[in-house]
Specification:
Distance between the termini: 14 Å
Order of helices and strands: HHHHHHHHHHEEEEH
Strand order of the largest sheet: 1-4
Number of helices: 11
Strand content: under 5%
């Protein structure tokens, strides 16, 4: 804990001050590697080939990270760098805030275009409420993936843990679709990501509840999350919706097909202003995690 706490705080500060690197982000290169492996191994889709592709993409880089993190002097700084590159807190703000700005400026076409960059649903016909709902849902879910799950695995396993998690999460985002091309090939990536996010997602649901309307957040989490298709997005978005006293979920179009999703949360449908409220909820939850870490560190020296 003594070395991980300052590394965690420094990485979070770097993410806050610098945001995501504009150029030469390692995940861009990893994405190219993933595309190459998918093209070579997914000519006849199967679960075994998808598992092999996952192993080839993730394990060599994780093992290399483990070795580099153990080097004297260099290892600690390298670990800070790994966590910083795996965090996406400011990236979340950089993507969500312009959507809110477009809605507040009554530029619905621009808002649709911007929200289309961060969600997989079809956005061309969304109204203001639909854009706000999609953005708030993305903020809550990606806050869990891009911030809290990364912190969880770094605190548990150090730099190899956060690299393993971030690469796995990236592969799920690329391969974890229930389409003919990826239904079998992406099965391993999707299941591994579900397993890695299981505990962090429930800690995030608890954090969202504590940092908003706790009663509504807890109630929504416990009663509505089981009906959601994703075992991890359900608790996170239900608790976040309840904490914000918003109604999320409902029908959405994915790849030209209308999907009737269960309702999440309670209260009123989201508006442009609620995007900022969702970002604030994520930031309050991050502050809560940092305060708990500092407290645990202090107790170890009492």
């Amino acid at each position: 804990m003594s070395g991980l706490l300052p590394a965690t705080l420094l990485a979070v500060l770097l993410d806050r001050l610098l945001g995501e690197p504009a150029r030469w982000h390692p995940l861009i290169g990893f994405g190219r590697l993933a595309h190459y492996l998918e093209r070579r191994l997914n000519q006849q889709p199967s679960i075994s080939k998808g598992t092999l592709a996952w192993l080839l993409a993730v394990m060599p880089l994780t093992l290399m990270t483990y070795w580099l993190a153990t080097l004297p002097w260099f290892g600690w700084a390298f670990s800070v760098l790994c966590l910083y590159l795996c965090l996406g807190g400011q990236s979340l703000v950089a993507h969500a805030k312009p959507i809110a700005d477009a809605l507040l400026s009554a530029d619905l076409p621009l808002a649709r275009e911007r929200v289309g960059r961060i969600v997989s649903r079809d956005t061309g016909q969304l109204d203001e409420e639909g854009v706000a709902r999609a953005t708030v849902e993305s903020v809550l879910e990606n806050g869990s993936d891009a911030i809290f799950a990364a912190l969880f695995w770094f605190l548990l396993l150090g730099a190899p843990g956060v690299v393993l998690y971030r690469l796995s999460n990236t592969l799920d985002a690329m391969w974890g679709y229930r389409t003919p091309r990826f239904l079998l090939f992406g099965r391993a990536a999707a299941k591994i990501d579900d397993a890695l996010n299981y505990l962090p997602a429930r800690l995030v649901a608890l954090s969202y509840s504590l940092c908003g309307n706790a009663i509504s957040g807890w109630h929504s989490w416990r009663t509505q999350a089981p009906s959601w298709d994703s075992p991890n997005a359900g608790p996170v978005m239900a608790a976040g919706a309840g904490a914000l006293e918003l109604q999320l979920g409902g029908a959405a179009v994915y790849h030209g097909k209308l999907e009737e999703r269960p309702a999440l949360g309670c209260g009123v449908p989201p508006k442009a202003q609620d995007i900022s409220r969702a970002l604030q909820l994520v930031q309050r939850s991050l502050l809560l995690w940092m305060l708990i870490l500092v407290l645990l560190w202090a107790l170890t020296y009492v």
